[in-house]
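haha ok so turns out i had the wrong file open the whole time. this is the CORRECT one, sorry everyone. sequence first:
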Amino acid sequence: MSGQTVKRLEVLAPAGDTERLGAALSFGADAVYLGRQQFGMRSSPGNFDNEQLRAAVQAAHEKGIKVYVTCNTLPRNNELPFFERFVREAVEAGVDALIVADIGLLMLIKRYAPDMEIHISTQTGIVNYATARELYDLGAKRVVLARELSLDEIAEIRAKTPPELDIECFVHGAMCVSFSGRCLLSQYLVGRDANRGECAQPCRWGYHLMEEKRPGEYFPVFEDEQGTYILNAKDLCMIEHIDKLAEAGVYSLKIEGRAKSAYYTAVVTNAYRMAVDEYYKDPYDFRLPQWIADEVFKVSHRKYCTGFFFGRPEDSQYYGSSGYIRNYDVVAVVDECRDGIVYCTQRNRFFAGDTVELLSPGQKPVEMKLDELYNEDGERIETVNHAMMRFSFPCSETFPAGTYIRKELDK
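then structure:
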């Protein structure tokens, strides 16, 4: 592989709502991507209305962080009349780029907002340099490549496209069993169109076989002896291969997960931020500290794999279960530190004497045993067991507001 990184790698984090946005901004994102109520591939009500969008862009820009807005569905005729207002509001808010999958929308953006930066979504399915070059000629500043490409293929695309064209790749998070998210299962089975942000994730369901003359008698569908989740993909994780991504010419490292929790956003963004910083300490001999690699296992996740980056995946499906692996609970969030006291708000029950980790932006987690806990009235307590209760504990160290306190679950 060949190619040089022209610009410092970008850590691109998901922001599903204002809470997740705050986590991404605090824990090391260079840029965030988010959606509105229309035209985005995540249709949840947690998306941003116009007022929230303006506030999000302002908060991000105050920290020097860029905001990209998704309009990457494939809209129908009746939606197109609303698109001009969508673009105008993005311009007025100061959005840094719009992410599109549809050629028609690309051309409309050029008409409505000639100066708006345009990124081409992974939904477009870009797998070769000819397509990438044509999209650049049409006005794209960036292409988000299909997830089905190897590092060698990405390197060739980089070598045969204009250097001004940015290359972005998903490097972490859930993977779709279909090609770059072009899936009909959800629409067919439950009437929810995955290509319009409404996927019900039927690829995560367990399946059985039923013979038509024996209704109600189910037979397991075995791809191998492990079970029946024949469509269930593992999660992608490339945190130990930052150097190889950079060498291939990837500029933006995209983290999947707009529907995930703020804690997930914080931890994974923080891990990739620190991994990229470690890479730049010695790009020719990148060695990721184990504690950084361990961070991505401290969020809810499926089993990990490296997707297609190293060629045809041999171990990217998991047939035993579609459930998540969760080894840690967030038990509290730090509100402030003052006069040797850490003031917090509870998130899950825990007890005096428990050992916890405190995770602050850009720092190695700090482990400590909380022997003394006090309620809001300064009375000593043995358990923090009320939702969102305020409590405190003495500590000689200080931690910034927003620090997560987490506890390993009993095994």
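The chain has two domains: 10-178+233-305, 328-408.
again sry for the mixup
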